């Protein structure tokens, strides 16, 4: 078109173009190139890490990489370390303590996780979010979050969800992404048979190693009541009584150490040689978020008590056991005993969380009918109403529903690679079983066998079986 214009008109046409103008084709080419570069960057980054499985949405991850803003709140507490230096020192940690944008994103993720996945304990979620919001805004203020309640009501699960919201990657030691890699779990029952000095040395070694990697990490002491009270007292700096353990600030003497004690002291010395020689003190323990869980309801002490009586009992027992050591910086949250309504919430969440647990590339959505929920709760009442409560019920439900999905995929191997299932579980009153139903799509032929048949039955069905004619496939165990 331009070639048909007179030469003078062509010059006027070109001169009217704005500076920086580029043809549409060039812009499209640059856009495609940018997308390709982004994909290559993600792939290269994924191959360079051990387990590139992120806790956050894509937007949250991008913010963590490219948000270089500073925090006015954190700036008042910073000890001469710039935001860039903080990132270089601790590349594994989300900079929520120094970056307002990242902190807001973490709080949004934390709120979404706790509201969606802490079942049957609405009295805990919002007050806990208030405490954690202040902690993230003022990270050097010590805080100990005490989660009290019976076994299986969601205390440990809550701490894991908080760590997931504050972590860049999922915990490497768990198949399901329900915790972040900045979580250190210390089992209260893991030091039986050890002296207080030996147990203290092991715990301090774990905490120091964790703090060196995640100075704003999460530490969970699971079942604090199982620990010797003398050991709890020996860990006083962790609960806000001091900024550091003595081992963090001094070089252990190796002149008189011997045997196992010598080896442990040498490992602690190696850990801190770099920070001490540079003149920078190690990160203070007050920056950590400390969770402790307790179970004062053992042996049926909470049975028949009102919620007010349960709260009073927990506060009295906690103060009586630990005196003034913990209550000064402790925020206590009481989890109420397990009920049928909570059991129904656990069953529903076990089903609705399947896309996240098994992979969204396999399952697009998962639902269950109200009748099936009530049936499973009543069927397993004797088990979930015992000691383990929600843990036992969730495991039983997952065993039952996941087994049906595994059998379905075994008998539909071709569809597994390109078909995202929309599964629904419902109660079959004829057999009194909870059955898996999958939509009969155009990609599924009418001659496919039912999902729960064995391999022999499936082959027999393939030769002479017929469809049930209702447009959906069923399976059961």
TrEMBL record:
Residues 439-448 have a biased composition (Polar residues). Keywords: Membrane, Transmembrane, Transmembrane helix. GO terms for cellular component: cytoplasm. It comes from Leishmania donovani. It comes from the Eukaryota. One of its GO terms (molecular function) is ATP hydrolysis activity. Gene3D superfamilies: P-loop containing nucleotide triphosphate hydrolases. InterPro entries: AAA+_ATPase, P-loop_NTPase, Torsin. The keyword Chloroplast does not apply. Belongs to the ClpA/ClpB family. Torsin subfamily. Residues 438-477 are annotated as: Disordered. Signal peptide: none annotated. Residues 141-328 form the AAA+ ATPase domain. The chain crosses the membrane at residues 21-45. This is ATPase associated with various cellular activities (AAA) family protein.
């Amino acid at each position: 078109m331009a070639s048909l214009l007179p030469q003078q008109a062509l010059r006027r046409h070109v001169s009217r173009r704005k500076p920086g103008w580029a043809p549409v084709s060039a812009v499209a080419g640059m856009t495609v190139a940018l997308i390709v570069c982004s994909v290559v960057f993600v792939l290269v980054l994924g191959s360079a890490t051990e387990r590139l499985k992120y806790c956050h949405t894509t937007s949250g991850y991008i913010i963590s990489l490219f948000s270089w803003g500073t925090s006015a709140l954190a700036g008042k507490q910073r000890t001469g370390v710039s935001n860039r230096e903080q990132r270089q020192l601790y590349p594994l940690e989300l900079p929520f303590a120094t970056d307002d944008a990242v902190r807001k994103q973490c709080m949004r993720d934390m709120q979404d996780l706790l509201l969606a996945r802490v079942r049957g304990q609405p009295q805990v979620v919002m007050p806990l979010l208030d405490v954690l919001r202040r902690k993230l805004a003022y990270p050097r203020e010590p805080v100990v979050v005490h989660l009290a309640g019976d076994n299986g009501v969601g205390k440990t699960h809550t701490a894991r969800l908080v760590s997931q919201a504050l972590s860049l990657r999922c915990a490497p030691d768990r198949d399901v992404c329900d915790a972040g890699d900045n979580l250190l779990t210390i089992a209260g029952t893991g030091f039986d048979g050890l002296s207080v000095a030996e147990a203290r040395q092991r715990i301090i070694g774990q905490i120091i190693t964790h703090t060196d990697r995640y100075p704003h990490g999460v530490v969970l002491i699971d079942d604090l009541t199982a620990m010797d009270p003398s050991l709890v007292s020996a860990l006083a700096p962790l609960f806000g009584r001091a900024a550091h353990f003595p081992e963090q600030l001094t070089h252990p003497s190796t002149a008189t150490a011997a045997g196992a004690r010598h080896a442990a002291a040498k490992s602690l010395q190696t850990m801190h040689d770099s920070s001490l020689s540079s003149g920078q003190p190690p990160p203070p323990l007050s920056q950590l978020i400390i969770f402790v869980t307790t179970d004062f309801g053992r042996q049926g002490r909470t049975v028949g008590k009102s919620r007010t009586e349960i709260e009073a009992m927990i506060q009295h027992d906690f103060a009586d056991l630990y005196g003034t050591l913990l209550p000064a910086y402790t925020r206590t949250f009481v989890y109420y005993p397990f009920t049928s309504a909570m059991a129904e919430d656990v069953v529903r969440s076990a089903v609705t969380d399947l896309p996240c647990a098994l992979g969204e590339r396999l399952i697009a959505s998962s639902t269950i009918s109200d009748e099936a929920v009530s049936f499973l709760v009543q069927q397993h009442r004797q088990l979930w109403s015992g000691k383990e409560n929600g843990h036992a019920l969730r495991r039983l439900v997952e065993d039952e529903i996941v087994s049906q999905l595994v059998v379905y995929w075994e008998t539909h191997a071709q569809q597994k690679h390109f078909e995202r299932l929309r599964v629904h579980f419902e109660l079959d009153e004829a057999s009194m079983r909870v059955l898996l139903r999958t939509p009969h799509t155009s990609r599924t032929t009418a001659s496919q066998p039912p999902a729960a048949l064995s391999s022999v039955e499936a082959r027999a069905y393939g030769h002479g079986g017929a469809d049930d004619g209702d447009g959906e496939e069923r399976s059961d165990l």
